[in-house]
Amino acid sequence: MKNQFDYYHYTMELDSTSIASLVESPVPIDQSPIAFRKIQCFSCNGILLLAYNDIIIMWNPATRESRRIPPSKTGGLYNFCYFPSIEGYKIFRLGPGVITSLSNDMDIDIFSTKSNTWKTVGIFPPNYYFEEYRIYMSDGIAYMMAERKESENCTILRFCLEREEFLEELLIPNTISPRGITVVGEKLCLIGGSLEDNRKIRVYCLYMKETNSWNKILAIQLPFKISLKPLSFIKDGGIMFQNYMSKNVFKAYNSTTHKLEKVNVAGIEGLHFIQVVAYVETLSSPLL
């Protein structure tokens, strides 16, 4: 019998019905509850990035190839992206740097799979508070929810991994109460509540290659205290959600009926998932 601190990786199709398959982890998984809460997982180009404690792994579950990344500094928040121009990946880290009595800044470090080295390229802007517990990545840009110290207004900071510098901040529409950001289908999405009715959740999608403007793609009336995270676009323009407040892990928004529907996934009954990451299977190698 599995105890409450046994952790495993599963893969499944994000569709109306699916079957989950257990896959072998590329490294032994730390079974402690502390490690469980610290696991970070991201996807890009068919590759997964796993990070917890001082273990950082790039892994393709389809081919079972993996690559161990040397740690930069202790702890931190990660994400990564692929750059065709260099035929390699860059890993972004935000976390504690060299702590002295005069400074408690968070360093920004970048790892290149081409050079197999880390370098510190800056610090988190001191005139902002970091508001999230994750870094989000889309089109080579790292996004971070933040609050301006001077005004206490929420905004989104952007760091370009190709140029290795911060870009102009991304403003949040003043018509919503922001609840967070995520990436769906390689596009940055903003989740927020309606100012008229905070139980109506709205999802905005940002199209970076056009006008850097938000386009509302969804508004759903949700029961009180329900917690959903958009995962992926599915057939017929629907969206798959991870449900944090129920034993039923997934919900699908039907764009025809405009309703949330239960998604049955065989093989995961009774399991709790700390993270669910959408990715497209490829034969890409993490060894680049």
From TrEMBL:
This is F-box associated beta-propeller type 1 domain-containing protein. It holds the Pfam family FBA_1. InterPro entries: F-box-assoc_dom_typ1, F-box-assoc_interact_dom, Gal_Oxase/kelch_b-propeller, SCF_F-box_component. It comes from Solanum bulbocastanum. Residues 6-283 form the F-box associated beta-propeller type domain.
